[in-house]
Amino acid sequence: MCGIFAYFGPQTNPLEIVIKGLKKLEYRGYDSWGVALKTNNDFLIHKEVGKIGDFSFSDLQKIFPISNSQLPIIKIAIGHSRWATHGGVTEYNAHPHWSKNKEVVLCHNGIFENYLKIKEKLIKKGYTFRSETDTEVLAHLVEEYMHESNFENAVKKALSEIEGRYAVILISKHEDKLIAARRGSPLIIGKNGHDGEYFIASDIPAFLEYTNKVQYLDDDEMVIIDVSGARFENMRTHEKVNKRIVEIEWKVEEAEKGEYPHFMIKEIMEQKNTLYRAINQSAEKIHEVAKAIKSARGTFFVGCGTAGKVCMTAEYLFSKIAKRHINVIFGSEFKFHQDFLTDKSLLISVSQSGETADSLEAIEVIKKLGGRVVSILNNEASTMARLSDIVLPNKAGPEKAVASTKATTAQLAICTLLAYAMVDKLDEGEKLLIKTASQINDMLNPRYEDHIYKLSEKIKSAENIYIIGRGLNYPMALESAIKLQEVSYIHAQGFAGGELKHGPIALISENTPCIALVANDESKSEILSNAMEVKSRGGYIIGISPENAEVFDYWIKVPDCGNCSPIVNIIPVQILAYQLAVMRENNPDMPRNLAKSVTVK
Ligand code: G6P
Description:
single chain; 601 residues; alpha/beta; Glutamine Phosphoribosylpyrophosphate, subunit 1, domain 1; Rossmann fold; six-stranded antiparallel beta sheet; 24 strands; globular; binds 6-O-phosphono-alpha-D-glucopyranose
């Protein structure tokens, strides 16, 4: 989703900092970008369609040579990477946007839901619009109010009229001031040790090389940064808000690719360690959550995309291990179930980023009804974390590839722990997970990658790939399809093995690759029979299984990890998806049309 970056401070190269920051936000997914620099009495603005790629500050200098004498002592520059919602992918629609007389320049993430009404009003007043975006209305509206008031008050008045979820940063031609506001989309302020140097971004890695001291803007809050410092205010009441400075412990390297060509493979390989970290939960907290589930009248696991498939796996884990039914609802569908909910309902939100708008909406729904919220989160400092009664951290470290890998297996591990804790067998769950973690460590070696590479070579031109699983591995068949679709762009679909004969088997023709996710459990003989049904119709069977079977045309061995089979079975698919993406010359870290953190509904 859109990325926002702003710099305020004394450094002489503000645009260089902004361009670097935008590059660090690239993983969020975007289709155009732009930057704006405040000069003594104007703005320099540059926008482009496509990726920033190798574009650098020196390229910008060729477009508009910038001399220091043009710049005020305090440098202010903003930048944006846009994931189109309102209006096509064009330079006009790219941000920053500016007002009629270029008094105000801004960047925005999210959607101004009532923009059409405001646009009509502004058109009647003689404003014309350069773009098709919802964003541009705010620039004009602020300028309109600046006729009667200063920049800061005009922003406040304009924002009080705007409906929707957003993060926005604004600058004005005549004041050395940076204003940012949020309602629903993330914005984090970085404060450097140097006096008066501030960064604002959608995510911390964008400015982590300059400072690890951050202040989180919460919903309905704004920050006004000027030479006297940063003032935080509630946007509705205009009361002052005191913000804690949080020191981030991530190391810069954790958010970098290091020796790996892509984040996706780096993050897949990190699963050698991340599972150990995920298991290292406070037993007290796990028991507290188990107790909350037992006493709730209805527990709802909620997630989107891959996290949604983890929720589906949790349903099987809870049924098998805890003998307990839990409900699973995708974030975007949750509100349609609200008639069943009460203040005794419990929502367990599973999310890597903790910023997914659909999951946040589910939390809003349950909170309104007085229900409790537990979150399983990788980003402990996210909006979701702040809205939750209990947070179980994934501890996977920053995940930057759009396709989730290490966060997924960490989420699965925590759901497994919870299921065991429900029947007072947390120790047993921990032991199983520790064994699984050590087997993953052994499995992830170059020979293993080579073996999957040979398969990737064989199937790289396939038009369709089907994945089947049963029981615990049925949701992982769906997750496998997501992994393959999002980075290889091969049409992939997952099915419950038993469902094939009710329709999908008609899709199988000569040599259609079909991956069978097999676990050494009660589902084994049936999933092998389903694989045989596919093979009899010409399918090419790839078995991901602890043991070889006659039906497999290609076998990828995984350790036998009992109830942790979803964790080990998904890893070879992650590697396969990555390799197919690279072979097909796709960028696995930034797949087309997708965003890492989906902050719109
Ligand atoms: C996007 C990402 C997926 C992710 C989903 C939910 O669609 O591309 O990889 O699973 O959002 O994100 P979350 O941060 O809530 O886990």
